[in-house]
Amino acid sequence: MEHNTNLLLALGAVLCSGFVGAYLARRIGQSVIVGYILLGMLVGPNALNLIGDADLIHKLAELGVVFLMFFLGLEFSVRRFMQIKNAAMMIGSTKMLAQAAGAFLIGFALGWAPIDRLFLAGIVAISSSGVTAKLLFDLRKTASRHAEVLMGVMIFEDFVAIVMMGVLMGIATTGIVQTDVVSVATLKAVLFYAFFIFVVARFFPRVVSWLEKIDSDEMFVTIVCGGILLAGAGAVYLGLPSAAGAFVLGMVVNHKDLEERIHIKVAPFRDAFLVVFFLAFGMLIDPRMIPGVLGLLLIILPLSLFVELVISSSAAFFTGLSAKAAVALGTGLVSRGEYAMIYATLGHQSGVISPDLYQLTGVYVFSMTLLAPLMMRNAGSIKNWYSRLVPPFLKYGSKLLSKSLAPLMYPDYYGLEPPRNRFLFVGLFMLYVGLVAEAFASHDIRFAPVYLLAGSVLIWWLRSILASGFRLVYREVDELLEHQILEPQVVIHFVIKLITALLFTILVTGVVWNVLEYWSLTCLLLFVAYVAMACYRVNCIALKVN
Fold first, then answer.
1. How far apart (Å, rounded) are the C-alpha atoms in residues 546 and 543?
2. Mean pLDDT score across all residues of the chain
3. Is 520 helix (H, G, I), strand (E, B) or coil?
4. Residue 458 class from Cβ within 10 Å (0-12 exposed, 13-18 middle, 19+ buried)?
5. Which secondary-structure segment (H or E) carries 47?
6. Neighbours of 92 (CB within 10 A)
7. Lowest mean pLDDT across 222-226, 269-273, 391-395
8. Least confident of 191-200, 261-270, 379-388, 495-504
9. CB-based contacts of 389: which residues, under 8 Å, 6+ apart?
């Protein structure tokens, strides 16, 4: 009897604390996640210790993750994503790689173990789709073009996050970072996705027909919740996180009426258990350790903001969005939430990451989520500040790059047919990414010439495919030639040079990193100087022609 009383008291205290946290957060215009984490810190065992059965709360918190990921899967529209996939993948890849690289370098500079560096990279790399979607709704920006692309980026990040979750779980199980462990974990996650998308989805319409015939709400809620939990359990059985199973199950539910009924009947369970999850995360944060991680936070926080506000916004602009829309998209990527906390909890419970990293995650998520609405509301002011700061020759070069890439990013909008060699390009690019990753992980300098030679061949091949694609674009899209001063061949040559330089810089940096370490960053500085010089030269040519 006493155990049942403790259970009811603990769960009741958590939910009531969640209400107080959400109320206070909304009163000051912040995300409810901020309130949940803050109240969790206060009522947890490291502060007021008002929750008796904390272990049970942490077990129930996993249900919040499972239900959240299922509903995120419901929002995954494959058809809608395919229309903006090129832009979403370019922006998302640029942003995640920049965030992960910055975090990895910080961890290396601090002398952290490889596992801590890898978990830190995962923690800072992924934005919160839940927080972002809620902020777009609260700010009434869901109908804008940049919001559509932003949610496409979120969908792409959700997919990468689940794969990354499988990788980190595989590492947490073995306690070591090895190429074969990462490869197996990635392959396992991809195959799990493929099984649900191509096998389960084929037979799921029959399940939908059967679910539509269930008139009883009690029976409907029971079978849906049971299916979500079984999908999560199946993922765990295969060595993947339970969230992965719930997410892919939500993906295959491609039926509007069924989705609407699920939102009405099952969403309250998600909301209740999400409160438990976020408060449980806050309960594990020790306020006494916060001063010890503030120094690291002051390094990581500005870096993360720089990546989102500068690099992500630039990537969005290069896909063809206007400067205002691109900055608005960049500010929409500031928030952090569920993925960072899931990764940190996974590493903490497995005992493979340091306590400082776990404590840092809570403060980092709290800070980024606190800044997200402020940044989104002031996107216009940030854009105006950029306009005054960027030199005219860089603006001109950026516009040339943006106009040239836009038809490739949104081919449906420009009425372009997909290029016949697109699968060859994707395959070659994946080989390039794998080669760079292998070179980065290798500690044997003897293989450096092999990596450089093979990478150079792949870059030359990719360059030739891109050049033919750009020539086709300038032949088919007449509006690119309107108000264009330079000849198309000059513009194509300029764009191809920049892309080639970027690919080669990444290759060289990956090859020499383990030998020259910080000196390899010189490659990045040289690339920045090369871009500035190329933009200056093409701007001078345009001024002479004009």
1. 5
2. 81
3. helix
4. buried
5. none
6. 25
7. 269-273
8. 191-200
9. none
Largest CA distance in the chain: 88
> Exposure string (b/e) for 367-389, b if CB count within 10 Å is 16 or more?
bbbbbbbebbeebeebbeebeee
* CA-wise closest residue to 72 among 150, 8, 159, 143: 159
Tokens of 334: 């500031």
Where do the structural domains in the chain lie, given as residue ranges?
2-389, 391-546
Torsion of CA 478, 479, 485, 486, to 10 degrees: -50
Q: What is the architecture of the domain spanning 2-389? A: Up-down Bundle (1.20)
| CA 404-406-408 angle, 5° bins | 90
**Which of 95-104, 186-195, 400-409 has the lowest average pLDDT?**
186-195
Q: Which residue has the tokens 């409907």?
A: 220
Please state, as a whole number, how many other Cβ atoms lie within 10 Å of the Cβ of residue 460: 12
Please name the amino acid found at residue 180.
D
Q: How far is 161 from 283, CA to CA, in rounded Å? A: 24
183-196 burial code (b ≥16 CB/10 A, e <16): ebbeebbeebbeeb
Residue type, 38: L
pLDDT above 80 for 18: yes
Assign 269 a pLDDT band (cuts: 50, 70, 90): confident
